[in-house]
Design goal:
By secondary structure, the protein is α/β, with parallel strands linked by helices. 34% of the residues lie in helices and 22% in strands. It has a six-stranded parallel beta sheet with strand order 7-4-3-8-9-10, sandwiched between helices. Strands 1-2 form a two-stranded antiparallel sheet. The chain has a two-stranded antiparallel ribbon with strand order 5-6. The chain is globular, with a radius of gyration of 17 Å. The two termini are 14 Å apart. Bound molecules: dicarbonimidic diamide.
Length: 220
């Protein structure tokens, strides 16, 4: 067992029964011309965490832990994209429209790929999810159960949307989850701060939070 300094109290886990869940570190959110940018956001806020995510991913791979990458991704016919999601707001390009990196948030398009710096390697799970939560309309729970996973380490974007939703889903399914606070980001820094606080409030009502240094310390 490994124990790391975390909020609201220490988090103990075994690498063999823990997965690193990397939420939606895809070009659509992190590079100009994708979904995040069409909604009017400054995507450079998100790219700032990439080097820290790379360090954690490297250490986790060396430790032999399971890695799961998710992508927010819709079928080419958009049959898994509810009109309410496609029509929401006033983006410059909607889900399924053709942008500089191909069709926005559509499977197989260049913009839908995980950024090169965190590209999946053989043996890692890549999960396409049509919703905010990684467990919604996916087989993630079965994949984790089949591998004996009980604990999850979260990183990725955006903190208050897909990361938080996935952590809450994980909590309801019985996983102990920890968010690596410097490996997640929001287009709205105050939303990130509030999310980190609410996740570990009330005795860890959703889970734990810790900076990546706390994890790296115990991985060696
Ligand atoms: C959003 C996400 N923000 N991955 N998706 O729409 O957080």
């Amino acid at each position: 067992m490994k124990t790391i300094a975390a909020q609201p109290f220490t988090f103990s886990f075994a690498v063999a029964s823990t997965a690193l869940l990397i939420i939606d570190m895809q070009r659509d959110f992190i590079e100009p011309g994708g979904f995040g940018a069409t909604l009017g956001n400054d995507v450079s806020l998100l790219s700032a965490i990439v080097p820290t995510c790379q360090t954690v991913l490297g250490a986790w791979r060396r430790a032999g832990g399971l890695v799961v990458h998710t992508r927010e991704s819709h079928r080419t016919d958009l049959s898994d994209c509810p009109p309410s999601k496609r029509n929401r707001g006033a983006p410059t390009l909607r889900i399924g429209d053709v942008g500089p990196m191909g069709r926005i948030l559509v499977a197989g398009e260049p913009g839908n790929q995980i950024i090169a710096e965190l590209a999946p390697v053989a043996g890692e799970i890549v999960l396409d999810k049509p919703g905010k939560g990684a467990f919604y309309a996916t087989n993630l729970h079965n994949l984790l159960q089949a591998r004996g996973i009980t604990h999850l380490l979260f990183m990725g974007v955006t903190t208050e949307v897909c990361v938080q939703t996935s952590m809450r889903e994980a909590n309801d399914r019985g996983y102990d989850s920890l968010l690596l606070t410097d490996c997640t980001e929001s287009y709205f820094p105050h939303f990130k701060a509030a999310t980190v606080e609410m996740l570990h409030a009330q005795g860890g009502i959703v889970g734990w939070t810790a900076p990546s240094a706390a994890l790296l310390d115990v991985l060696g």
